[in-house]
Amino acid sequence: MEHTVEVDRITKRFGDFTAVDEVSFSVRRGEIFGFLGPNGAGKSTTIKMLCGILKPTAGRGHVNGNDIITGQERIKESIGYMSQRFSLYEDLTVRENLDFFGTVYGLDGKRLKERMGYALEIAEIGDRVDEVVKTLPAGMKQRLALGASILHDPPVLFLDEPTSGVDPIMRRNFWELIYGLSRAGKTVFVTTHYMDEAEHCDRIALIIAGKIIALDSPALLKDSLDQGVYLLRIERFIEAFDLVADAEFVDEAAIFGSDIHILCSPGFPLEKRLEALLRKEGFRSFSIEKINPTLEDVFVTQARRHGL
Questions:
Q1: Are 95 and 129 in contact (CB under 8 A)?
Q2: pTM score, two decimals?
Q3: Which domain, by its residues, includes 10?
């Protein structure tokens, strides 16, 4: 299967600080590929190297057949890029923004009109095409920014935390657009720190401190977890968490809202041992159940295994 993105041990250093550390992966045409990690993990730096914005310190790679070191200008012409920060001009109208960006991409005449119409359809602008952008709702702005980034119909689209700051309903609607682009054969590279968003990707690279610590489909990443996962619901959960996390039979413990996820060796009778511990310490009202692992369980476990 054809790969539109391939990188081999790319590294980016800023002085003594290594932001991206020998990262390697490839992305297939039409795939939704996710980079999942906390702020500062190296996601945006990696995407900027792939988009021809930053030059790698070391390593090699290609995007759409263009070298990420020697072909940066050609890469910029052949991709769509949507940055974390809203990239359109707030004081211009919707029409003026699309006309400007279309011209930058070399579009004119009938082709520009067609692609502007497509962008307006994606954004669901309706009759607001002549309103200044700053008056639009946040979700509409995000969809408009996406439409502007693909005016020139690029084969690869890079979305750097595209739904940051929008509500869950807007995020879900935005992902419907991403699915449509993937079905049309576009390669979509998405960075995110939302675990639920990562579930929508065909494959995910978990990245922390500039290193990829795991890479696979969401289902296979969760299946690879070789520990039992349990959910503890309990009053005074902060106090209970400190107790549980220090228990010698618990491998990992993490807080999920007001719940606690607990990982232990497979086959270990956790319910019985944990109930005895909690009752001994005066806890009376709680429930313990075995659950399927989440991506966050995988992420925490992988990070600890790598000493991060």
A1: yes
A2: 0.87
A3: 3-222
